[in-house]
Structure formats: C-alpha cells, structure tokens
From TrEMBL:
This is Glycosyltransferase. InterPro entries: Glyco_trans_2-like (IPR001173), Nucleotide-diphossugar_trans (IPR029044). The lineage of its organism: Bacteria, Bacteria division WOR-3. Residues 51-212 form the Glycosyltransferase 2-like domain. Gene3D superfamilies: Spore Coat Polysaccharide Biosynthesis Protein SpsA, Chain A. The chain crosses the membrane at residues 6-32, 296-314, 321-339, 351-368. Belongs to the glycosyltransferase 2 family.
Amino acid sequence: MFDWIAIIFFWGPLILFIYHWFIFPLILILLVKFLRKKENQPEFTDFPKITIAIAAWNEELTIAAKLHNCQELDYPPEKIEILVGTDAVTDRTNDIVRSFADKDSRVRLIAVNERLGKSAVINMLAENATGDIILFTDADVLLAPQALRISVGHFRDNKVGLVLPAYRRQNEKGIVAEGLWDKFENKIKELEGKIGAAVGVYGWAMFLRRSLYKPLPPDIINDDYVLGIFVFRQGYKSVYEPKAISWTRVEPPVVEFKRKMRISKGNAQQFFRYSDILSPKYGLVAWIFFSHKYLRWFIPFFLISILLTCAVKVSIPFFRVLLILQLIVYLTTPLVPYVKGKLRKMLIPQYYVWVNLALLAGYWQYFFGKRPKYNWLRTERRID
C-alpha cells in the first residue's frame, strides 16, 4: 500500500529539490553541448554609443567612485554618456554629480524633487538615453575596464537584446569573496547564456538594447527581472559574459537577509503578474524560468514539507534520522550572522536555511505586511 503522505509531502518536494539543484544543471550542460551553434557574427563598423544609466538615492558614499570608474572604462570616450537619476535625495549625491558634470560633458544629472521610486527613475533615465545600448547599473557597483568593450560585442548578433556581465563580491580588504552560491549562479547563467536564455538578471549591471526598453510599472519591486521578461517577450535573447566583471562589497549577513527579503517580495509579485513567461510559446525560455526561478521560489515550502513529514513519520527510523539532522541544522542557523572567516564554510547548510528564511519573510511581508510606496533599497557602504 502506498504511503501517500510520504509520496506527496516528502518524496515530491525532495525530487523537485534534487531536480532544481542537480538534474536541471546537468540537462543544461547537455543542451549547451548539442544546441549551441558557433556563429560568425559581423564585426562592428563603428562602436555603438552606450548610455550608462545610474539610478541613485542618497548615494554620497559611493557615487564619486562610481563616476570615476565610468570615466576610466576602456571604450571610446565620445561613445559614452553617463546619466545619473535621483529623486528627492537628502544627502550630497546631487552636488557630487554636478561637480563631475561641470568637468565632464558626458555626465548629466536628472533630478526630481519628489519621491517617485526606483522604477520611475529608471524610466526617466531610459527616456533621456541617447545610446544604442543602455547599461543599467547600481551606484555601489564597479566595472572592470574591459567590461563595456567585451559585453557590447554580443550585440553584433541582432537577436541579442540583453547582456549580463559576471558579478563578484569583495571584502573590506578588496579580496574577491565568491561564495558557493555565487559560483553556482554564475555557472548556471553562463550555461543559460550560451543558448540565449540567461534568466538570472541582476540589476547591479545589465546591458539592454535601447529599442527594446518598455516602461516599468511604478510599483514594481524587482525592476531587473521585469526588464528581462520584456526582452524575452519580444523574442530576443539574453546572454552572459563571464569575462566582463562587475563587483561590489560583501554585505553583512543581516543586510543580506534584508536584501533577499526585498527580492522575495518581488518574486511573489512576479509570480502573479508575469507567469505568462511559462507559456509553451516561449519554449526553452519557459522551461528555464520554471527550473531556475520558479522552483527556487518554492524551495522554502519544500523544506517545510520535508521537515513536517519527518516529524509525522518519526516512528520510522529513516525519517527519525533525517528529522534529527534537519533539527541540528535549523537550530544552529542563528549562528550564521556571528560566524566569520573560514568557520563560515562549515555552516553552508545553515546559510542555505538562512537564505530561505529570508525568502519566507519576504513572502510574509508581501502578503500580510505594509507595502512601502517606494521600492528602493540601499546599503550604507563605501566603494573604492
């Protein structure tokens, strides 16, 4: 006789969990091997103009370093314009940008005196952009000198609408601190990008063909994800460029928790507004969104289901052992914010639970909490 409780609430979630983390990447590897075609892309007869669009709110700690970084990028200077958009800042951000604009005609400040929210500022930047390609990038993110030149090369393919540079995190000593999570995400995006379906869009740096830009709804939370959706809806490809490096500072676990909460709220919003991307008409893109993104959003519920099933079936030795192991991980998860350095590598399962707790907290806040009028999250940190 089948144990339907175990099948539905334990084996079902466990199989989906294993599929998401292990089977899906293996299938991607095979798809890349058999589907990827080497194409002879036409060379640019001229470098396309790029608009670097920076949405900033109270970024006096980072904006100067950001603008210096933009000015030093290895790309024809006359082919770059730098736009900074702000709304009702209360610090010296606007003054700093104006000081750069006085010395460099490529720099322009687009400032409004009322709070509009990040999506509205991004829309303003896109409306004022004159480049063929828009690089949307955060104020606390720096780019490697060759990032523009390497990334823009992908737009030789007229079907490429979006290019995602690689991202890295640096600690306070400037040492690259790429965790297991980041390594996995970057590798998955690289595989997806090789077949034109890199769905893991991060807003801290993304190159978009300007002709494909669609205005963002004013209340959107994860603007980067939605811009990617708009590109796929129009039938264009998204690729990942591992040699174009962008980086920012490592966030403390508590700050990272809040950031992931915000992303989680956006996930809930996306689920209800943009699930049409799962339509069969989008083919491979739909499958990748389901396998990479949608299953990821449900992982916290899979973990809860597995835990509760083990508790209900505790009289069975197999489930009893699994329950004990899970409880050890869950009860030690509160240590994550306090453990640093090499010891943190010993807490990989706990960190994973920590991340999923942030997702759950974000879902709770989206459905039951007060929704802020302005979806704008910033971190108090300096970049050099």
